[in-house]
Design a protein that fits this description.
eight-stranded mixed sheet; two-stranded antiparallel sheet; 10 strands
Amino acid sequence: MELPGHAHADAFFLDTPDGQRFCLYHAPRGECRGALVYVHPFAEEMNRSRRMAALGARALAAQGVGVLLLDLHGCGDSAGDFGDASWDGWLRDIAAGRAWIEQRLGRTAGLMGLRVGALLAVVHAQTAAVPPERLLLWQPVTNGSGYLNGFLRLRLAGELLAGGSDSGGTELLRESLAAGESLEIAGYLLNPQLAAGLDAADARALGPRCPISWFEVTATAGRPLPPAAVRVADTWRLQGSRVDVQTVQGPQFWTAPETVDCPALLDATLASLEKADD
């Protein structure tokens, strides 16, 4: 599978009240069957998943779905520093990207998110006045507090490798954030506002008011869904959401130090759109 180049996408900066956001737009080929805004994952996971995002956008565009790849505030080639980004600001970026593609294609857009990007997509769907047309969730983070703890542990691991101590653990780091201190973690400056927003984000808070296709990537075929995923999906169904959850076999490309693909995830994503159109 070839890496899609920018030749098949329009690169531009989207003006928002919070600054310019770098975008790549993959126009739908043939009749437009849908519109999506891709919401990337957190910190280094974004860089490691760029190829899969590009492959997904190109494959979707070939099936008539326009896709906007959006770099959030302080990420990628967008304006601002990661250390100045906030959770609410990222939600405004998503709303701005959605407004752009909806005006461009004249239809309600959906959101496709990976990891924390999926959690951001869910929170947008929970709070937007007009819900997105659909959600495509790749390996979604469902509890921001747990993800934040894992990110803080990277700081502790770095201190141990440097010969320091992890006395106090994540609780001490959380106290520093609560006191208004930004923390340097794995090359990223995490500010208290972004940490607080991530910490408070909970997918179970409200079932999104749109169809949801949820994909969990597993190393071996036939593995059951993680219990946390089952709980969230069941909660959403009880709240009236339409949720389809499935597992696909492949590598965890968002954490792999080398570039790897997950063709089964792309195939399952395209198949879910075909099923939705039937």
